[in-house]
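User: I'm putting together a small comparison set for a docking exercise, and I want a reference complex before I start. The sequence is below, and the ligand is adenosine-5'-triphosphate. Could you produce the 3D structure with the ligand included, as C-alpha cells?
Assistant: Of course. I'll restate your input first, then give the C-alpha cells for the complex.
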Amino acid sequence: MDSDYFVETKDLTKTYSSGRIKLTALSNVNIYLKKGQFLGITGASGSGKSTLMNLLGGLDKPSSGTIKVQGKFISELDCDELALYRRYQVGMIFQSFNLVSSYTALENVAFPLLFADVPKKERMKRAAEILNMVGLHERKDHRPAELSGGEQQRVAIARALINHPKILLADEPTGNLDSKTSRQITQILADLNKNQGLTVVMISHEESLLAEYADDIVHLCDGKIAEQETNS
Amino acid sequence: MRFSDYIEQSFSNLRKKKLRTFLTTFGVVIGIGALVCMFAFGKGMQKNMTEGFNKLELFNYLGVFQRSENNKSNESTQDPNSQNEADRRKRLLDDDFIIELTKIEGVEWAFPEIRFLAMIRYQEEEEFSLIQVLPARICQSGIVNFRAGTYYTSDEEYSLIISDSLLHRMDIKKPEEAIGKKIEVSTLAIDFSLDNIPNILSFLRGQGLPFSRQSYTFTIVGVTERMGMGGPTLIRSGVCIPYGTSKKMKKLPVTSISDLFVSTQQTQGYSAIGIKLTSPKYVEPVRKRMEEMGFNTFSLTDQIEEIKTVFIFMDLFLFAVGMIAIVVASLGIINTMVMSILERYKEIGIMKAVGASNKDVKKIFLFESGVIGFMGGIFGLTLGWIVSVIINVVINSIAVREGAPNMNYFSFPWWLCLGSIAFSVLISLIAGIYPTVRAAKIDPVIALRHD
Ligand SMILES: Nc1ncnc2c1ncn2[C@@H]1O[C@H](COP(=O)(O)OP(=O)(O)OP(=O)(O)O)[C@@H](O)[C@H]1O
Ligand SMILES: [Mg+2]
C-alpha cells in the first residue's frame, strides 16, 4: 500500500544502552511528511528531538521501526548507502553550526562536493553562487571564527544546499541566535520551502517561531509524540 | 573523491600543523636515510668487489695445490679406489708440469705460487715480510697497477716491485722516489750443505733448525697500487720478485707449516701453482682434471659465492639496523595521526554528515600518512646520499694517504632510489592503518555534539 508521503516513519524507536541501564530516547514515533511541507518539531530538552532528526538524516540507525523516504527504506541501508543518502538527499543544519574552523566560508560550503567527485573549479564556482544566494558573498574568504552566529548559520545553510538535497533538516538552527537573527534564518528556510519546494524539518524551542512558519508542528515528550497540530 | 583532491587535502591539512608534520617526517627521513646509506654502502662494496674481480680477470684463475696428508685420508674414506689410482699417478707441481699445463685447452699460462718469508732491509730499516714470486710474464699482463715505475722485463733480474704500503714504512713520500733504490732481501733456508755445518750440528743437538741466512740485493723497478678496501688482488705481499731469480735463492716457502720441513730442492716441486685460463668457462673442466690428478684446487668462483653470502648477511644486518629506525619513525606516524584524528574529531563528524563514506574518511587519513612517507622517502634518500658523499670524502682522504686508490664506496642503483621511496610510503601506510580505522569508526552523532 503505497502512500504519497515524502517521509514516513513507522514505530520508530531508538534505545540507548549504557551498561545495564536502557534509555528509550524515541519510542514508536510515526511521522508523515508530504513533499514540500515545512514540519516543525518542538519539545522539552531530552525529549528526543535530535534523536529523531539524526535518524531522519541517516546519521544513526533506529533500534526498531522503519523510515521511508521517497518510497525507499532508509532504515535498511548499509553504511555506504547511508553515506550516499546523506550526500545527495539530505541537507543538515545544526544548532552549533558545525563548520570546519580551519576552512573559509567558501571552503566550508564546497566541502560536501569533495565527496561527490566534483572537480575543484566547479566546487568553488557552485559554492560561490550559493554563498551569494544567502547574501554572504563578501565574507567568502573569512573563517567561521571571524563570522557572526547568524552569518555562520547562513554558511551552514549554504553548505546544506550545495548538493541540491530533497529535504532540509535543521536541528535548532536558531538555538544560538538572538530573536532577530532567528527570524532571518527561519525566513531563509521558509523561502526555500516556498520558492523551491524544498521539504523542511525544523526543530525549535520557540513555538511562536514555528507557529509563524511551519505547516505542521509535532510536540515530542519523553520520546513520544504528545501532540500534533496543523497550521493553516 | 578524486585522486588530486586527496593529495591536495593531505598537503593542506599537513601544512596546518607544520611543526608536527616536520618532526614526524624528520623521523622518517632519518630512518630512510640510514637505511639508504647502509644499503648503498653494501651495494657499493659488492659492486667494487665484483668489478675488481672482473677487471683483474680473477674469475679466470684456478689455484692448484699439493694435497696434504689430512685431506688424503679424508678422501680415501669416501672413495678409496680412485684415491689409490690418484696416488699412483701422483705428480709433482714442477716446471715440467707447468709446461704440460699450458698445453691444456683453455689454459693461458701457469705460474708457481710461491711466497716465502724474508728479512728486507732498506738503509737502516729492517723488517720481516712475505715475498711473493711473480713471473715477469704475469707482472706484464696488466694484473698489476703501477703507481710509479713499471714491471721487470726478465725473470732473471734482481729487480723487484713493492707495494706502496711499504713506502710509508720506508719513509719515502713519493712513489717515484723509490724507483732505482736498492733493497736487501735476506732469506732463511734449512740447509744441510757443508758450509752450514755449525747450524746442522746445533740442530742435531736439538738446538733449533739448521737455518742459514743468505742476502741478495735487489733494485726497485716498480711501485704497485694497493687495492682499495674490499678490492681483491692476486698480489698478497708487499714485495714481488721475478720467478727466475727466486729459483736461485735459498729459502723456505711458507704456504703451510708442513712446508717448513720440505727441502728447497727443486725436485720436490712447488706447493702451489696458479693457472690463468682464457675464460671462466674453463675453470670447471680444468679443475676437474686437476682433482683427478690428485691435487686440491681453489678458484675465486667458490670465493665469490662465499662473499655473496657474506654480503647477504651484511645487507640483512644493515637492514635490521635501518628497520629499527623505521619502526621508531612508524610509531611517530601513528602518534601523529592519532593526535590529528582526536583534534579533528568534529571535522570527521562533519565529513560524515555531509556525505563522506567510511572509505572516504579512511582514504583521507591514509593519504595523509602516505604523504608523510613520501616526503620522508624523498628527503631520506637525499639525506642518505649527502651522508654517503661525506663518508666517501672522509674515507678517501684517509685511504688515499694510505695508498689506496680513490674510489666510490657507495652505489645508488635506480631500484634503491625508487625502492626507498616506495618502502617509506608503504611503511607509512601501514603505520596509518590503525589511526585510519579509528577515524572511520567515529560515530558522527557523537562527534557533532563534541566541542
Ligand atoms: N549516544 C547516546 N547515548 C545515550 N543516551 C543518549 C545518547 N544520545 C542521546 N541520548 C539520550 O536520549 C535522550 C534524547 O536526547 P536528544 O538529544 O534526542 O534530546 P533533545 O530533544 O534533542 O534535547 P535538546 O533539546 O536538549 O537538544 C536524552 O535523554 C539523552 O540523554
Ligand atoms: Mg537536541
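The first strand of chain A starts at residue 7 and ends at 18. The CA atoms of residues 50 and 171 of chain A lie 7 Å apart.
User: Thanks, that's exactly what I needed.
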